[in-house]
């Protein structure tokens, strides 16, 4: 039957969701249901060698072609529009333009690209959030900003809420200005430096969505160019992941930019005082705001047809904050855990930017800005505590792609349940060090407690359990930081399909684990925020009523068994530490 006859489909909101390995586009109805979706994977770049790292290993380097990301977004949008056209709703024709009220963007955070908005040249591939080349960069920034009586990684924490670590966007900016000659030339040119642009993936996608194709689309060597005239903005959640933003003022802080960039070799004789201009950083806006930008339109495969022409971009949220929003965690103390490539546990802390003493991050959760039809002033920003773990789903990918132990993630549940326990064997997936709450870049992965009776099933089980143990580390750190006893954990992401892992998570936390009806909470969050900005939904309360539980796992593990498992995990983590030293 024609979708046009469905009253819920007369008012739609789109959501662009750019993840670490794929992009998706969703269209959501006014009842909060997914009408249509498309997903496109794109290539991961793991350089084996680099002219910027001559004679040294590039192990741990991880890049994305920014044009591959843009193409994946554009293809998803076109696929969704063309699929709906088959069912009687053609969103590429002018008369149906008003059906899509707005589009939101959510994105892998911290992944950073640099380009020139005058020439369209992209200086280098996007450096991905989990790339470890910037560990040495982070070390250098710590040494350059030593303060008495402050731990080296915490010298910027009072302003940013973050430790200095390879994870954050500013370390990627510093690596780029330290290493890329064309970028160095432009930053040292009085005319050209004003055209340099640094952005995380939300900013890049927004710039391309709202820009215009250049007359010369490709250079002679097949190099593609960024569009021109695009909107150059980011939101408070993404901006809070750079090390450049002051959490109290929600604005870029020149002293932070200076602290990270001043000692770069980019500045030549001005080393020690050089810095990038603030014009190179995107304008920071609220997460939900109808004035963010307007899409110029994406050509469909049928000539003359344009998708999303003149549709408003009305929200931007970093992926984990978007999942918190999509889980309707609008009250202080509500928490969610997303199991993706990594594992990310966030707790709403209200209007209070709670500083962590437990190795967690203080981050922006969301901010409601200008809304169509509302005379309310821009709301104060809402903050969150976050624990980020680098390896969760990617540990299972490692079993599949590197060890050939499994053919697909779907096998892991059956294998894990084929053995009664881990038989005291643990896998610590510290492949690029340990993130929260440890922040130990010197750690490396290990399997401990092995005996000759251990088999493939035990390794798979230990890999699944490692995510649950890491989530407990963060969960407990949150309780200590906030003095809030978390009553339940809302979960999302691919691993929530694994019933063994969710039950083990509830058992090891001794807390109920709740999975929602829709697992696409990240994409839904940006969609809900965009809809709120343009009046599809009138309030957070109305959005909250659309959240529905699908499954709850209650803890059933005996107290003694929980204590035994937890003691073993902590011993295993100890064994992983201190592996990398100055000679290695």
Question: What this model shows, in words?
Answer:
The protein has 584 residues and is of the alpha+beta class. It contains 16 helices and 25 strands. The protein has a seven-stranded mixed beta sheet with strand order 19-20-18-17-23-24-25. The protein has a six-stranded mixed beta sheet with strand order 3-2-1-5-16-13, sandwiched between helices. A hairpin with a 3-residue loop joins β17 (335-339) and β18. The radius of gyration is 23 Å and the shape is globular.
Low-confidence stretches: none
Strand order of the largest sheet: 19-20-18-17-23-24-25
The radius of gyration is 23 Å
Class of secondary structure makeup:
alpha+beta
% residues in beta strands: 15-25%
User: What overall form do the CA principal axes indicate?
Assistant: globular
Number of helices: 16
Main β sheet profile:
7 strands, mixed
Distance between the termini: 64 Å
What's the average pLDDT?
Answer: 91
Features:
584 residues, alpha+beta, seven-stranded mixed β-sheet, six-stranded mixed β-sheet, 16 helices, 25 strands, 30% helix
